[in-house]
Design a protein that fits this description.
By secondary structure, the chain is mostly helical. The chain contains five helices and three strands.
Length: about 120
Amino acid sequence: MPEIDAQTYENLASELRRGLVVLMVLSQCEELQYGYSLKQRLGEAGLEVSEGTLYPLLRRLESQGLLESRWEVVDDQRPRRYYLLSAVGKATLGQLVDEWKSLVATLARMGIGKEAES
């Protein structure tokens, strides 16, 4: 079976992950998170996100009103910026989860992913 080159595959896979990272970040900000803890949680779940991707995304989500942030000093260390879903963020997360479920159902109806189940 012919295969695409590794770089093309990685580009396609990266596009797919990029489309989901907002949903994943919002879902983890239902509890108070700071950037590094969020990066660790995502990594432990299997999604490696670079700081160059995560921090601009957090700022963008805050500017869109989906996240709120505040600075806190913990254990006399340097201040950390903590993020939490706003009310708009909670509603949006619910809508995005519904959209994701709809897309997964569409994929299932198309028979996509059945090979992985066998």
